Amino acid sequence: MRKFSLDALARELLRRAADSPNGRAAETVYGGHEHVLRQTVIALTAGNRLAEHHSPGEATLFVLRGRVRLGAGEVRWDGMHGDLLVIPPQRHTLDALEDSAVVLTVGKPQRESHADE
């Protein structure tokens, strides 16, 4: 079993984001390419954004700190500490309205096994 302090990680990533030229920092706390589930803490300083990008599949954002705005096309959803935002299955952006940290959770479809039976 592993245990993480997401609050401590959010503080550390916000410090790193403040020192970064693009105002962001991230660290995957669980999963990766070999797993179906991936959870990544992302920190953005106020006024910075993740530019429009494709949806990673089924995904949510849990706001640990600050306020963010998730946008897809003409639709916008604001989230603050404690909110869970469902990421739409289309291109979207994420803006930090304040210094913010979120947990991005992505569930990728499993590849079918083609092993002989």
TrEMBL record:
InterPro entries xref list: RmlC-like_jellyroll, RmlC_Cupin_sf
Lineage top rank: taxon: Bacteria
Protein's name in the database: Cupin domain-containing protein
Organism: Prauserella cavernicola
Lineage, highest ranks first: Bacteria, Bacillati, Actinomycetota, Actinomycetes, Pseudonocardiales
